[in-house]
Every structure is written in C-alpha cells, then in structure tokens.
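Record type: monomer structure entry
Structure origin: computed from sequence
Chain ID: A
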Amino acid sequence: MNVRIKKLAFMGLFSALLVLATVVLRFPVPTFNLYFNLGEAIIYLTALLYGGAAGALIGGVGSALADIIGGYPVWAPITFVIKGLEGFIVGTVARKNIYLAVFLGGITMMIGYALAAGIMYGIGAVPVELAGDFVQVSAGAVISLFLHNRLKDISFNDEDKF
C-alpha cells in the first residue's frame, strides 16, 4: 500500500478516535462548565507515532471539533490552540525522549486550560481545572505510552512523518 494513503487512513482513524474519546468518553465536572475525557491518550499516541505536525493537526482540529459537537463551542478556539500546541510539543520532543514529551505536553495543556478557566469562570475554577486536567493528562499518558509500545511498528520512519 502507498505510504501516503496509509498515512491518510491512519490520520482519519485517529481523528475519529479523538472525537469519540472526547465526546463519548466524557465525564462532566459538577460545579463549572468543564469535563474530563480520554482525548489526551489519542493526542499523545498520534504525536508519538507520527510526529509534531500530525499531533498538532489531530490534537487541535479533532479536539475543537469535539467541543463543537459536544456542546462546548465557546471552548473550540481555545481548545484548537492548546491541544494543537500540546500535540506539536509531544510529537517534536518525542524524538529525544517520549516520557519528557508527554510530560511537557501535559504541562502545556494544564497551564493553558487553567488560564482559560480562570479568565472565563474566575479564579475559583483554576484549582478544579488543574485537578481534573492532572487526572486527564495522567490517564492519557499511561494509556498512550502503553499503546505506543504495542503500535510503534505501524508508524512511519522519520522522513515519512507529517
């Protein structure tokens, strides 16, 4: 199979998985208009397997689309930037160290959403956002690193990455 076609197929698959993991596997936080989801696992896995550009594209577009579909359209532009940056960082740093990459991506996501929640809902939302995001990025890290070790053979060599 042509490498470009295979890449496109996997990117479509990971985009769909991200939307599903974010919209379907979502758990609302009671006090604020926030929710916990498993989308981080897909963003990290995509970035680890296919590099920074794919991580940014799938992370930003897929997560923003999930916000729109899931009833949180006000968050879509914020999500596009934060999740795109998160995926880019993970995919770029992963060339040197996958654990550091996931850690830095998680910190980026947590800081970005804490700032956004603080601006949108007030300072009281920041600890709630940070706590939920910590659990979310931790679960995403564990899941993605586990899956990465099993799926890394379906990735493409460095010159084939997006």
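Annotation 1: Confidence is low (pLDDT under 50) at residues 158-162.
Annotation 2: The domain at 3-160 is CATH 1.10.1760.20 (Arp2/3 complex 21 kDa subunit ARPC3).
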